[in-house]
Every structure is written in C-alpha cells, then in structure tokens.
Amino acid sequence: MRPLVTPHEALRQGYARLRSVKQRWGGRVHLLPQADDWPRLVPGHLSVLDGRTLNVSVAVPRDIAASAARLVLGDRSERTVVPLRLREQDGGGASADGTAVVELRGAAEAAGVLPAGIDRHLLDEGNWKVSVEFTDVEGGSRHFALATPPPLMEDGPTVPDPVREDGTSCRLGTSATGRVHLTIGRDGPGAEVKLVRFDWTGITLRGHLVNAPANAYAGGTVELVRRSGKLSHSVPIHWDGEYFEASVRTEDLPGVTGREQVWDVRLHCPGLKPLKVARTRHDVRVPKKVHRMPVRLLTGEDDRSIRVNPYYTPVGSLALRGALVAGGEK
Fold this sequence. Notes:
Order of helices and strands: HEEEEEEEEEEEEEHEEEEEEHEEE
Number of helices: 3
Radius of gyration: 25 Å
Largest sheet: 11 strands, mixed
Strand content: 35-45%
Structural class: mainly beta
Number of strands: 22
Distance between the termini: 44 Å
C-alpha cells in the first residue's frame, strides 16, 4: 500500500514539476516560420551568462573560405552586428568566436567599464533573431540562421541567464522551427529583499522597489497575511527613495497560536496591486536550499515567545513560519 502524501509534500512535488516544465519549455519563443529560418548552422557553443554576456562559437562551413564573420541580431529592418574572430582549428577548418555584452536599452545598469575588446550592444525589448554571416575572400556573403545549440548545463546550482538586479533579463529561446532567438526584456514590478536581520524581539526587513515607481508606493506598508483564515496585519515602513525598511515584532503576526502557521509578506499600497516581497534577482536555481535562514525564538513586550523561521518559497517569495512555544500563550 502506497503511503499517503502530506499536503506539504504534494505542494513541494508540484513546484518541482513546474520548475521542470519551465526549464524544458520556458525558453520556447512562439513565432511563425519565416523564410530566413534556413539555411542553418548548429553552433558549437551559444550562451548568455550573468544575464547579459553573450558568447558564441560557430564552425565555418568547409566550402567557405571566410575572410570575416559576424553575428547578426535581428533582421534586415533592424539589426545589431557583433564582429567575430576567425580561428584555425587543430583538426582543420576554422571557427568564428565572439563575446559581447547585450543589455536592454534604457536600463539603469547599462553603464560601466567593460574589459578591453568587448563591446556593449543596447537592444529594444523583444525577440531578436540570431544569425551568422560569413564574407569570403572574393567579397561574397553567406547568411545562416543559428539552430538550437547543445545545452550548457541543465541541473547545475545556478542558472546562466538570471533576472538581473535591475529587473532586466536576456535569454536564449527557441522558435517553433528550432531557430534561436535572443529575448530581452524587463521583469514586472517587485519588492526585492536585500536583508533579513534578527534581534531578540523581532525581525528587520530591508528591500527596494524594482520596476515600480517609488513615489506611488511611498505610503505603502508591509502586510503579513496568514494563509489559514486570511488574517492580515500592516507594519509601517520607513522609506528612503526606492529603499524601504520595516520592523516585524511578535505582536505583528495576526492570529498566532501554538499550531504552526505561515504568513506571506507583501508590500501593500491603497489603490495599487500588492507586490510580493521576494528574492528573485539572483542566479540560484533552487533558492529555498541556498537562501536559508535560521529558526529563532522571539519574545514580545507581552512576554509571549514565538518560534519564527523566515524562508523563501520555490518562486522566491518571502514567508514567515511560526508558532507560540509551549506556555507562551496568554
């Protein structure tokens, strides 16, 4: 007889299946086949690291005596060209290799000094076709669409193309025909956790707004919503521009009892959609296993003692798990 699955275990398994499906299909770009999807080359390597560094290596077809090569992002109406270096291979033939920084046009972090020899390319939000062009010694040009490359790493501890701290992302996707596209864009509004700190009586939470206007949320509060019964309590926030800080005390946990319960943490402002307070701008594949926080015993002004464990859900949202300790209820 198979053992019964607890609700918590069923939820955990569901999230695991969701992550698996997202990893397999989340990069698929649903675009109709187009004439320039062929002919194709499969790159030996194609990746986006740290959400902005594009790396490519493509073998030059043996029937082309290439004198120059370039990576093309986009189509004839709008395109960005990345020069590639031609390298002779030990086994014969040649490859075209290159590295470039690709960022969203107008992004806050699209600045700074790059290493010598690496250029920055600013793109508008959307899907960009990825192609390679070779110029031969006679001046002729050959154009190839790039097909899906071999997987870089499917199950490592980090993802190669995370959402960056400024909320922008740059990822490789695949069309329905198997052609590679570069998808660049901006994440939705959020409240990103920067610090969770304990003391004897409570928890200090620090964070900042991402892709959300600071003036619109300036009067907002941190809202603790109990999952069972949907009780909620608001905690005042100290604002400094887009940065916020709140102190959560034991008396701020609504409906706390001796039975363990969970409170979701949100940023609430009247008239606006609540924002989940979360930690999502990172490259960790399974944040719950890495961004772990200890269980602490907190004592309030009413002398009640509560066992509290902040944690991140599989999608990165901050939650508080807690209960009154034995003899702590008044």
